[in-house]
Amino acid sequence: MTTSSSSSSSPTLKIGIVGFGTFGQFLAKTMMKQGHTLRATSRSDYSQLSLQLGIQFFRDVSELIEAHNDVILICTSILSLSEVVGSMPLTRLNRSTLFVDVLSVKEHPRDLLLNVLPEESDILCTHPMFGPDSGKDGWKDLTFVYDKVRIRDEAICSSFLHIFASEGCRMVQMSCEEHDRLAAKSQFITHTIGRTLAEMDIKSTPIDTKGFKTLVHLKETTIRDSFDLYSGLFLHNRFAKQELENHEHALHKVKEMLVQRMNEGQGPEKAEH
């Protein structure tokens, strides 16, 4: 694993965005600000929004694929990735192209892209560890994880990474496997606890401690994301199942400790202040 940052200039790129939902739009605004040429396609019609942003919008993914892009940036959901990539007419690629994904899991897109893309296409798997909420005031010191899965054109790859480095991101080079291992212990567990709190319907009270306010904020932040995102973190990260089992085991162990104390006839010794 390596970390680095950069502030030097870099050539502009022609970037085709596949999936122009909230996250794709969020990334596009900074890329446009930096002077890159953007095109986009999506299942929904974002032609009016794209026009306002100065982005060419294609209703047909085939037209985007044929548009001489330096980079194809895949901003789909985890669950729809296979279907979206399968719909791309990859035989119509008219130049070697860097394919980049920004999914919250990494082994899944890596394996899929290696399997379906032509040999001359480069692959960069990335995960910006931030989004429209956490990155609304800028990307400085926010973490950007990437793995150079198959890179022949280092210049194009470096220019793409520079988009994030120049905004002050903490650039972390890490294998897809290591990312998924760590993300299962962090991002997936965070979402699991947030979803659990939502099922418990926890709400603010007149006597909230700081710790409880943090939990309420976690719940509210988590449920802003779709359940599709959460299920994707589970279904397409092979380390998530073990972390879910660890979570269940830990909760059971804590309950056993309380029952044991109750059976011993002893009450709680310390309350939260």
From TrEMBL:
PROSITE patterns: PDH_ADH. GO terms for biological process: tyrosine biosynthetic process. This is Prephenate/arogenate dehydrogenase domain-containing protein. InterPro entries: 6-PGluconate_DH-like_C_sf, NAD(P)-bd_dom_sf, PDH_N, Prephen_DH, TYRAAT1/2, TYRAAT2_C. Residues 13-273 form the Prephenate/arogenate dehydrogenase domain. One of its GO terms (molecular function) is prephenate dehydrogenase (NAD+) activity. Keywords: Oxidoreductase. It comes from Crotalaria pallida.
